[in-house]
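Example with several molecule types.
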Amino acid sequence: MDIDGDVLELDIEMDLEEVKSLQTFVQDRLDYIEEIVLLRGKDGVPTTSALFTLLFWVKRQKPSIKIDFFETMNLELEGYGAMYWIAHE
Amino acid sequence: MSREKLRQIFIEEANEIIEKMDVDIVNYEEEASNKELLNEIFRGVHTLKGSANAFNFSRLGEFVHHFEDVLDFFRNAETIPNSEHVNLFLESVSVIKETLGCDVEERAELPKMYEVCLQKIQALLTELKEPTMLLEAGVNDVTLEFDNEHFCASQVPDESSFLEQLHEGESLFKVVLTLDSDIYLRGFDHFLFFKNLLHVSRILASFWSMPTFLEAEAFDVEHNSIKRVTLYVATSKSKEDIEDVFAFLEEEEFCVEAIAVPLKDVNEDERVKNDEPLVSESSSVKEESKSVKSSVMTKNFLKIDAQKLDELFDSIGELVIAQNCLGENAKIKAVQDAEVSKTIENLSKITRLIQNRVMGLRMVPIRDTFEKMKRVVRDSSKKVNKPIHLLLEGEETEIDKTMVEALSDPLVHIIRNAIDHGIESSPEERKKAGKSEEGNVTLRAYHRGGSIIIEVRDDGRGINKAKVYQKALERGIIEKDELLSDAQVYGLIMQPGFSTADAISDISGRGVGLDVVRTAIEAVRGKVDISSQEGLGTTFSIVLPLTLAIIDGMLVRSNEKIFIIPTLSITESFRPLEQNVHMAGGKEEFVQLRSELLPIVRLSRVLELDESASLPWECTLVCIENSKGKFALLVDELVGRQQVVIKTLGSFLAKTEGVSGGAVMGNGEIALILNVEELY
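Resulting structure tokens for the full complex:
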């Protein structure tokens, strides 16, 4: 996890403990974070689904925030195939 | 068979499928719960898809592929398509029709609506298809939720695309995870199962049902709020092997389902035709035996090149002529032998039988043409916002296939005209006139004499004769004080440029339509009669000969030559009394026929055979009705009535005024067939 000005960079492989910390971190800084970038290595795959739940929560709290995988649809993961998101109430 | 020939067959079949699809969808709209009809539509689309791809009609194949997915969803789901869905189906058929045209002509551009319609289909698929969670949870797509156009819904694939990704020997499985909120606390994670699944399968894609209403305060990242995750995996292992991955979960938290087996053999199309699901590889043996049975059953029909049929028909024509020559031969007639007479009589009977049977090969029920009109009525009705009920009668009536093609466009125009101008503007106006709110249009076909009559009847406001007369006067179509019968007044609406419509509408009233209708019908030796009663409705009757190749003709003699007049245009014939023949201006001749005064047209003069003027009361007058009205054709005498095989004249004679073709008589001589439209 790295914050550069108003851009927050996250590692896609972060585990549940890291995501819990992230939640606390983001909650306090939501006002000035403008963009979240998901970083992943060549074969990098997510470790926990909680990361995505959190990112959806963030987007819900601040719709103007830019989250790269929403923008780019770049979710073609090497081993896990393509991920598609459907929102429900 | 050459590839080009196969391609031609495909194009022909594709057109048939598309036409049928159009009709089936309109019928389906009337009974949307009819799964069998939906299956029928699906089968057509499936066949079209396969053939289109085989012949490199890739754009057509691509579009049809998506359309097939939509239909596949509905035929397998409980959901019944609503009227908007049916609208999209019909729109798709129109695009398919146009795309086929583009592909056939190898045009680079696509139909205008191609992309739009494809997007609508894909959006509908996204709404309907897997992730069915979307429907179940009553939710929105993330794209809409976050107003993020890059999160493109149209990129969501469907099951069939996963099937295409299977390697040899692999099967497709759908895994649904509905994990409890405490999974993280239990040491599990969705991605843990993803990781374990990789040991037994390849993950093709996953669909995540994400919550969008997470309370700011109550949200706890340690509690799973992802309701459902659906994965598609490819594997050569068994269902049990996949289920083992989830051995530590509760039973209700996961579900593994085999979607299909990769049977990529020739039985696939047959299986779809039989509407049987893919179950297992072992079932392919049964499928094979079924497909054999099916192909045996379909061999009751034989597809024949229409050109070959025409050639056969021509030969039969020659046979009829030869038979007539034999019957008329003076030398044979002179033989007073009962056996010879009987043989000739038998030959005559057999020839007529063969002629009728060959003619029958070209005859098709008018049903398909009528069924196609349902779409026309539906679209026109929606366009002008008038509820219309279409009634079909006499669909079994058979008509020459060539005539069917020529009839289609005129019929479309007459129906549109009936809906646009015939039927009252609003249900209120109809109610005021004591009629049902829904306008009625009846399409009826029947035989009368040697003709086929096709009627388009509406129960609208009828034709305002005075208005038509006035309009014709204003446009210089008729002259002031010209006396016209009712039929002649109604006939004026088919004159070029005539339109009584106060405003030009999108579907008719362009002032060219009915003129085109008349021309098209006359081109197939038919005519259009109009009858109307103001306030009650209008009937357009298209009168057509049974076939284009043979006409029922009246043989007449003029200047020692035989001519043939199509009996369809003859109303009567008579020899006038001297006192009933009048002269005008010293040149124009008229004959008084009951209350009518008809101009006399001398055939010998029109065809420039002879300038001498025989006395009308010593000749025969044949009363003919063409689009301009009635006239009396003066001929020397009537010879008889006969069915004649029409022969086209060579290019040198083709444009001879007053003549439309020729026929070989029994004595071997040629007789010209008169074109009554050009005689007066």
